[in-house]
Amino acid sequence: MATIIQTVDGVVANRFQIKQAALKFGRTAENQVQIDDLAVSNEHAQIISKTGEKGETSYFLEDLGSTNGSFINEVKISRQQLHHKDNIRIGWNMFTFIDENEVNLEKTSKIKKSWIPGVYFSK
Description:
Elements: E1 2-8, E2 11-17, E3 22-26, E4 33-34, E5 45-51, E6 57-63, E7 70-72, E8 75-77, E9 79-81, E10 87-90, E11 93-99, E12 111-113, E13 120-122
Parallel strand pairs: 3-4
Antiparallel strand pairs: 1-2, 1-11, 3-5, 5-6, 6-9, 7-8, 7-10, 10-11, 12-13
């Protein structure tokens, strides 16, 4: 299952699960993700899901003719496939796409020690 996480200053503000065929972003109440921002069009963008022949689900971000555009990883798009941890920008609002099916559980993260005492990080 896929999820969209809205972040504000790097902190999770909202979570939206993609359960239906389309998850719409916009300023009006008819959208599943309502964004109160003048840089966002009434019907700005949507995430649509497509199921392939083998049962795998792919997700696409599609701009709905918005004034200011929709961005994936700061690249303006009209329609593009989403991948795990893609950053989506609609207006000045940031979202992260999480697809649990794309997470590679076999890969082990290396934890590294920083020069700051007690602070560790992974790449």
